[in-house]
């Protein structure tokens, strides 16, 4: 698929691998070193005792979140805790490769191309989420509120929540001016139908060895269920509702 072909490009030309395996002298710190460039985000030295998440790890998590969002029929909890630092790190690396000592290096065009690919993933991730919010603005706001109340991971980011409120308000004004205002007061309501995820199937790959079995509807006998085992590295065509929790817990990857 198009998504898979784009994702594969990162396997052979990873921008976030260090160009050199050895630290360069202080007089040459302006040379391209993605790891060091990211460590300078706050203009200081990173404490060795502080756990440091590498750009490569962030990119790997971002690719998985993007792939899940592309394959999921509904909105998944946001990962802006990955998006925001990844954007900051891309900015730092862009600054690093634009330095005078680096601009003429033959590797710079490859780094620029890789940055463009990463930006495509980020843009497409946010674009798909906005599209799902526009389709079901009231539903996602209701689910977001329920998740916050129950102490679950938030469905929407702060800016997405603001967008959903504004979109729903604009849609309500449009409906009232077009036809709802002409109906009796008891009928001037906009329904919020829930998505039926039981009949939506997806391809999913099991990433870990401790994934619990799931129960899904039997496609052969009506009104019956089957227990599906999920061993590590296995691939299934399965009801999305059955594996939704495992996807959110990063135990299953959408394909």
From TrEMBL:
One annotated Gene Ontology cellular component of this protein: GINS complex
GO biological process, one term: double-strand break repair via break-induced replication
Main location: nucleus
Gene3D superfamilies for the chain: 1.20.58.1030, 3.40.5.60
Domain of life the protein comes from: Eukaryota
Domain GINS subunit residues, every copy: 92-174
Pfam families in alphabetical order: Sld5 (PF05916)
InterPro entries named among the record's database cross-references: GINS_A, GINS_bundle-like_dom_sf, GINS_Sld5, Sld5_GINS_A
Keywords for the protein's UniProt record, in alphabetical order: DNA replication, Nucleus
UniProt-annotated location(s): Nucleus
Name listed for the protein in its UniProt record: GINS complex subunit 4
The organism's taxonomic lineage, starting at the top: Eukaryota, Metazoa, Ecdysozoa, Nematoda, Chromadorea
């Amino acid at each position: 698929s198009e998504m898979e072909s784009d994702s594969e490009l990162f396997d052979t030309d990873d921008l976030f691998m260090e160009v050199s395996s050895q630290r360069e002298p202080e007089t040459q710190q302006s040379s391209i070193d993605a790891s060091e460039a990211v460590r300078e985000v706050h203009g200081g030295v990173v404490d060795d005792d502080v756990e440091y998440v590498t750009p490569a790890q962030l990119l790997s998590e971002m690719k998985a979140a993007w792939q899940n969002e592309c394959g999921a029929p509904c909105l998944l909890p946001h990962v802006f805790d990955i998006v925001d630092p990844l954007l900051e790190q891309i900015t730092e690396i862009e600054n690093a490769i634009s330095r005078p000592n680096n601009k003429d290096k033959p590797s710079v065009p490859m780094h620029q191309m890789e940055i463009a690919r990463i930006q495509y993933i980020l843009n497409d991730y946010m674009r798909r989420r906005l599209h799902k919010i526009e389709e079901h603005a009231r539903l996602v706001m209701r689910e977001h509120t329920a998740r916050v109340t129950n102490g679950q991971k938030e469905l929407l980011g702060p800016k997405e929540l603001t967008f959903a409120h504004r979109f729903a308000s604009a849609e309500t004004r449009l409906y009232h001016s077009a036809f709802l205002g002409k109906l009796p007061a008891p009928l001037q309501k906009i329904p919020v139908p829930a998505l039926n995820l039981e009949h939506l199937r997806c391809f999913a790959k099991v990433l870990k060895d401790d994934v619990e079995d799931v129960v899904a509807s039997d496609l052969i006998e009506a009104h019956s269920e089957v227990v599906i085992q999920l061993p590590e590295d296995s691939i299934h065509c399965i009801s999305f509702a059955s594996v939704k929790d495992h996807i959110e817990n990063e135990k299953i990857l959408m394909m």
